[in-house]
Amino acid sequence: MVEREDRVSLELSEEIIQSMEPGAVFRDYNCRISSIDFHKTSTCMVTASDDDSIRLYDVASATCLKTINSKKYGVDLVCFTSHPTTVIYSSRNGWDDSLRLLSLHDNKYLRYFKGHHDRVVSLSLCSGGECFISGSLDRTVLLWDQRVEKCQGLLRVQGRPAAAYDDQGLIFAIAFGGYIRMFDARMYEKGPFEIFSVGGDLSEANVVKFSNDGRLMLLTTMDGFIHVLDSFRGTLLSTFSVKPVAGESTLDAAFSPEGMFVVSGSGDGSTHAWGVRSGKQVHSWMGLGSEPPVIKWGPGSPMFVTGSSELAFVIPDLSKLPAYAIRK
After folding, report:
1. Does residue 5 register a pLDDT over 70?
2. Does the record carry Cell cycle as a key word (predicted)?
3. CA torsion sign, 117 to 67 to 247 to 273?
4. What is the pLDDT of residues 159-209, one digit of tens each?
5. Second label for 311, Cα 20 to 30 Å away, from 10, 46, 155, 197?
6. What is the DSSP-derived secondary structure letter of residue 75?
7. Distances (CA, A) of 95 to 48, 54, 71, 73, 98
8. Rounded Cα distance, 120 and 114, in Å
9. Is 319 helix (H, G, I), strand (E, B) or coil?
10. Which residues of 114-204 form beta strands (DSSP E)?
């Protein structure tokens, strides 16, 4: 019964968000962390960083299990496949823009995906399937099957693309030029079935993401805006504003597991939490790093991870919550 009470009372609220502070912090990077991903059904987490390393963590024990170097190709974006020791990652060396399927277990390349001719800036895997999607500065979005080296589809865009599958893998979104285009994954050749405006913000798209239940989308842009939309109607629900990012930096943001809150980075390296319904800022954190952080929520967990020049696991401090203080 206590376990059930704990689980219910730890449903995210503004009070719990405001109590959250860095727990475990890894300061051994000495460079920018460019990507973070959680495996959905295990306790594994992976990071990519500008020192050309991929690091595998066990979230339950907050320990680094393995570091794999990719000195030849560099590494930028990384995503788990359905297997907790297999990832797909993009290069960052300026001369080879292929994607790679890598076994972290034995550090072996299982497949190369060649097709892009400039840096890949967006990477999203279809949940529970073999498909994934990548967007590049070469102004193409390519659709892939993990089992085949050649791309299965190509869409041309007019700008830097941000692309993402919804959680069921039935729909994907491509954002650029102030609009989000919605595609049926089974009939993408017919073009978008919906085009949503983000309120006149024409700055470059950075990331587009769906909430876990697929009802909401967020889009971040180079000018420092985080737009939250109803993914069925395209209604713009909220727009949050932070300091713009500079140069090749990316403004990252993520929904909390139940979609009630958005946590975003900022151009000044700070991190902010916003209420989706209220449209108000709930909390902010300084000093988690100097770079605009990449952000990922743990699956079904009251924890998010930020990565800039260091990696921080941000968790509730139960001593700040009256309900828990009384129990003690």
Report:
1. no
2. no
3. positive
4. 999 999 998 999 999 999 999 999 999 999 999 999 999 989 999 999 999
5. 10
6. -
7. 19, 19, 13, 8, 9
8. 11
9. helix
10. 120-125, 131-136, 140-145, 153-156, 162-165, 171-176, 179-184, 194-197
**pLDDT tens digits for 251-306?**
999 999 999 999 999 999 999 999 999 999 999 998 666 789 999 999 988 999 99
Task: Count CB-CB contacts under 10 A for residue 166.
Answer: 23
| Secondary structure element (H or E) that encloses residue 326, with its range | helix 322-327
Six-digit token string for 290: 């100097």
Residue with tokens 């050749």: 189
Give CA–CA dist 303/24, Å, rounded.
11
C-alpha distance from residue 267 to each of 6, 74, 134, 251 (Å) = 36, 24, 24, 7
- What is residue 198's predicted lDDT score, i.e. its pLDDT? 94
Structure pTM?
Answer: 0.92
Tokens of 223: 């000018």
Burial category of 263 from C-beta neighbours within 10 Å (exposed 0-12, middle 13-18, buried 19 and up): buried
Looking up tokens 């400039």 gives 118
Where are the domains positioned within the chain? 22-327
CA–CA gap between residue 251 and residue 219 (Å, rounded) = 10
Task: Please name the residues in contact with 13: beta carbons below 8 A apart, sequence gap of 6 or more.
Answer: none
Find tokens 């019964």 and name the residue: 1
Alpha-carbon span 318 to 325, nearest angstrom? 7
Residue 216 pairs in a beta bridge with 230
Of 70, 100, 71, the closest CA to residue 86 belongs to 100
How many Å apart are CA 19 and CA 261, to the nearest integer? 14
Task: Give domain 22-327's CATH superfamily.
Answer: YVTN repeat-like/Quinoprotein amine dehydrogenase (2.130.10.10)
Residue pair 257/299 in contact by the 8 Å Cβ criterion: yes
Q: In this predicted structure, what is the pLDDT of residue 267?
A: 93
Encode 7-25 in three state secondary structure.
HHHCCCCHHHHHHEEEEEE
Q: For 184, what's the count of Cα atoms within 13 Å in the CB-facing half-sphere?
A: 6
Q: Which amino acid, residue 167? A: D
